[in-house]
Structure formats: C-alpha cells, structure tokens
C-alpha cells in the first residue's frame, strides 16, 4: 500500500465490486467483491493441496476465474504464509491456508494476504477484506467498477501462455536408482523451487477405475503431480509402462509416454517404426526359424555383421561377427538360448564411433561423439568408451529429430552412425543418461528439460469465444 506520505489526491475510490488482477498467480482479470466486514481477503480456489518440505511448505490450487466457465482452469502455487481458522458470513468456521500475493488495481499495486477456500457457488471469485483496503481507499457502497475495467477475454489470448508466471511444480521421477541422472533431476528441480519426489516404480500399484483411476505407493494414494519424468529400467519395462499409462489416464503430463518407451525398448518394433518413417538405419533382418540362417545373412550383406539381442542395453548382448562362419555360430548360439535377435550390417567407416544426439521438446539441445575403448567396436560409455562434444550436420540434426518424433518422445537420446550413405540411426533411447553428455558438452541438460516441462504445464489459453463480462 502507499505510505503515510501519500497525497490526499491519490485516494482511490472503490465500489462494492471492482476488477482486479493477481499477476504473480497468473490471474490477469478477476471480479472482486469488496467486504469491509471481513478482515482477511479470500480467493475462491479448488483442488487445494499442500506440498514441499515442512521447512518451506507450499500450496497449489486451481482457480476458475470466469463464473460459469469450468473448462477454464488456471493452476496456481504459492508459499504458505500461515494457516488460520476463518469464520464465514454464514457462521461456519474453516481452517484455511494463507498466502501472500500482489494485488493490482489500475496502475497501482500492493501486497496483500489471501486465504484459500472453495466457494464454487459464489459469483465473485475473490473477496477483498479490510486488511487489503488501506486508509487511502474510500468505499462507495452504492456503486461498482469505479476503477479501470478489465476483460475476461484476456484468458483467450495467446499472450497468456507467455505471461504465465513460473509456478512451483510437484514432479515425480520414476526411478529405482540413485544415480547421476536421478540426482541431477532432483537437484535442478529443487533449485527452481519445485518439489521433486523420487518414486520407485516397482512399489507403485494401481486402482483401475473408469471414474477415479489412482496410483498408490507404500499404502497411500499418490498426490496429483504436475509432471512425471520416467526413468524406467529395461528389466521392468512392462510394469513401468503400465504405471505410466495410469498416470496418462489420470491426465498427468508424462515427459515420455508409455507407447514411445515400449517401442524404443523392443528393437524389432523400433526398427520397424523407423522403417515406416523412412529413417536411415543399418540394413537389418530378423527371423525365427534356424533354417533361415543363410538367407538372413544374405539379406543384410556380407561379413562382418552385428548380431544383437532384442532386449540388449548399454552394449550388452551385441556381438560383432567378423566372418560368415562366425555369424552362423553366434546365430546358432542365440537360437539355442531361445533368444530373439537382429542381424545388422556393420558400418565399417564408423570406426567404432557413434554420435549421441539429445533431443528435448523437439530440439537437438546437445550432441557428443562416443568412441569405444581400445579393441571394442561398441562405443557405450558404460563399457569404457569416451565422449567429446561434436558439431553435427543439418542432415544429422534432422534425422535425430525425425527419430524422436517417430517415437513421440519429448526426451530422447538418438544414436547415429556416420556412414558413406548418410547418418544411420542405431537406437532411440527413451531414458538417456545425463552424466556423459553434460560432462562432454558442459550444458545444463536437466535445466533444459525443466524448461520444457514448465512450458508444457503452463495454463493453455481457451478457444476464443464470448466470455462473460
């Protein structure tokens, strides 16, 4: 509020109802009822839920700013200032969270405290109490809208997304490992003021209900998350993607969807998907019958060949057969184990090197060249390979983007080989590690991922139509 030196000519005149805004909460236009009989101001909110550490608790909630427009929902969050008992005009007492916010009226703005309560039936979405009305405000009880009028049409504007504040989010990282990637996601999220919880995927269980699907964990229903970052291990792909499907059913934004993760983990499915989208890759063949071994090799080409288990990860289950006879022996051995495998052409000119392109939100944000350990044709960092930053070509960038898009992944590690015929995609990884590429490129990859998450979970402007004035 203005200080004691305010000139008398600066007095504000309020009617019993005024247009106001709470820009810090992403609410550019609200009708507020002025009630001098109430001490504290109130914001009519729903889905009110506390989160965050006990030392710095926050509350998140949703606001339907336009009466009668339940389709328009603005998600908000704020630190909790207090919690107090409030008695409404009908004599009912209620314990409410108290938050601080900046109130803006015309070209004037000042800090106020607000209690949060669900009053869905109230015509005014906000109540202005005595504490928010200083001595420089005069109330004219018989009039309304004495201050500049606003319009609900602002909620239909495409500018609203850009103007939305960076609110605190509640994010779940689905991971069973306390590794570098998981720690970086927690560290970066908390640095931005978000609450990040690591959830062991295998300890989740689901209530599959058409009306109220839920995810439970350690005996309790999990809260509503703004976003889920899946870090699903290859050994639990089936169960992990089932948990992600449940979050998708609830309506939670999942950085990578269940379909994309499932397709990326099944190498046969992955190669068929890339072939459908005409994405370059090494010549590949697959067969189940041992009678087809010679034909399988002919489809791919001449030795040397790569024989790869469908479920292989981090270079495990990938064998280089340098001669035709060696290829036949490896194939027979895999068949003896009843294992499913692919046979691929070996790209000699790649010389044990590949390119990892990291795609976030439809953009290649970093790339590195990985070189295998001496004597090893595999370039995986987990197998002793080394990495360094690399400049990729326009064709390589476009190939990586097309591959991530084919799998509908918002976060993807696309591995390319540089061949004489152009870039060849080896693999699309739906849970790429952050350590190697952050170390090689010195880029804050976790931060770029949070930039994308924050953009995706901001309020979406509603379709332009006549809103109530």
From TrEMBL:
<keyword id="KW-0479">Metal-binding</keyword>
<dbReference type="GO" id="GO:0016874">
    <property type="term" value="F:ligase activity"/>
</dbReference>
<dbReference type="InterPro" id="IPR004666">
    <property type="entry name" value="Rp_bS6_RimK/Lys_biosynth_LsyX"/>
</dbReference>
<keyword id="KW-0648">Protein biosynthesis</keyword>
<keyword id="KW-0687">Ribonucleoprotein</keyword>
<dbReference type="InterPro" id="IPR013651">
    <property type="entry name" value="ATP-grasp_RimK-type"/>
</dbReference>
<dbReference type="Pfam" id="PF05618">
    <property type="entry name" value="Zn_protease"/>
</dbReference>
<feature type="domain" description="ATP-grasp">
    <location>
        <begin position="271"/>
        <end position="454"/>
    </location>
</feature>
<dbReference type="InterPro" id="IPR021109">
    <property type="entry name" value="Peptidase_aspartic_dom_sf"/>
</dbReference>
<dbReference type="Pfam" id="PF18030">
    <property type="entry name" value="Rimk_N"/>
</dbReference>
<dbReference type="InterPro" id="IPR011761">
    <property type="entry name" value="ATP-grasp"/>
</dbReference>
<keyword id="KW-0689">Ribosomal protein</keyword>
<dbReference type="GO" id="GO:0005840">
    <property type="term" value="C:ribosome"/>
</dbReference>
<dbReference type="InterPro" id="IPR041107">
    <property type="entry name" value="Rimk_N"/>
</dbReference>
<protein>
    <submittedName>
        <fullName>30S ribosomal protein S6--L-glutamate ligase</fullName>
        <ecNumber>6.3.2.-</ecNumber>
    </submittedName>
</protein>
<keyword id="KW-0460">Magnesium</keyword>
<dbReference type="Pfam" id="PF08443">
    <property type="entry name" value="RimK"/>
</dbReference>
<keyword id="KW-0547">Nucleotide-binding</keyword>
<dbReference type="InterPro" id="IPR013815">
    <property type="entry name" value="ATP_grasp_subdomain_1"/>
</dbReference>
<keyword id="KW-0436">Ligase</keyword>
<dbReference type="InterPro" id="IPR008503">
    <property type="entry name" value="Asp_endopeptidase"/>
</dbReference>
<keyword id="KW-0067">ATP-binding</keyword>
<keyword id="KW-0464">Manganese</keyword>
């Amino acid at each position: 509020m203005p200080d004691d030196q305010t000139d008398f000519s600066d007095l504000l005149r309020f009617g019993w109802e005024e247009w106001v805004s709470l820009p810090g909460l992403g609410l550019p236009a609200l009708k507020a009822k002025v009630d001098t009989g109430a001490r504290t101001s109130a914001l009519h909110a729903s889905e009110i839920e506390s989160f965050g550490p006990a030392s710095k608790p926050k509350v998140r909630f949703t606001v339907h700013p336009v009466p009668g427009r339940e389709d328009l929902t603005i998600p908000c969050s704020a630190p909790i200032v207090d919690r107090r008992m409030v008695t409404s005009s009908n004599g009912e007492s209620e314990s409410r969270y108290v938050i601080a916010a900046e109130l803006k009226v015309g070209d004037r703005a000042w800090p106020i405290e607000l209690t949060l309560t669900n009053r869905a039936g109230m015509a005014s979405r906000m109540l202005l109490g005595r504490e928010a009305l200083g001595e420089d405000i005069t109330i004219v009880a018989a009039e309304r809208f004495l201050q500049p009028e606003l319009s609900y049409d602002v909620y239909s504007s495409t500018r609203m997304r850009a103007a939305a504040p960076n609110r605190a989010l509640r994010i779940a990282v689905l991971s069973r490992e306390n590794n570098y990637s998981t720690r970086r996601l927690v560290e970066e999220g908390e640095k931005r003021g978000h609450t990040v919880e690591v959830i062991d995927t295998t300890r989740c269980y689901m209530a599959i209900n058409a009306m109220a699907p839920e995810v439970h964990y350690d005996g309790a229903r999990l809260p509503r998350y703004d976003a889920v970052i899946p870090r699903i291990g290859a050994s639990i792909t089936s169960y992990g993607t089932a948990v992600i499907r449940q979050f998708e059913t609830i309506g939670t934004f999942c950085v990578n969807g269940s379909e994309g993760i499932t397709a990326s983990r099944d190498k046969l499915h992955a190669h068929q998907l890339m072939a459908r989208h005409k994405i370059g890759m090494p010549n590949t063949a697959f067969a189940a019958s041992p009678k087809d071994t010679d034909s399988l090799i002919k489809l791919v080409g001449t030795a040397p060949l790569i024989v790869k288990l469908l479920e292989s990860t981090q270079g495990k289950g990938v064998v280089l057969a340098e001669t035709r006879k060696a290829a036949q022996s490896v194939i027979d051995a895999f068949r003896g184990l009843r294992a499913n495998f692919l046979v691929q052409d070996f790209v000699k000119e790649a010389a044990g090197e590949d390119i990892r392109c990291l795609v976030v939100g439809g953009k290649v944000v970093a790339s590195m060249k990985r070189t295998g350990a001496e004597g090893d044709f595999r370039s995986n960092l987990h197998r002793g390979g080394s990495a360094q930053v690399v400049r990729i070509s326009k064709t390589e960038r476009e190939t990586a983007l097309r591959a991530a898009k084919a799998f509908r992944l918002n976060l993807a590690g696309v591995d390319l080989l540089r061949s004489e015929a152009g870039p060849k995609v080896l693999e699309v990884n739906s849970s790429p590690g952050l350590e190697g590429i952050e170390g090689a490129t010195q880029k804050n990859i976790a931060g770029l991922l949070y930039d994308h998450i924050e953009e995706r979970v901001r309020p979406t402007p509603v379709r332009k139509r006549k809103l109530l004035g």
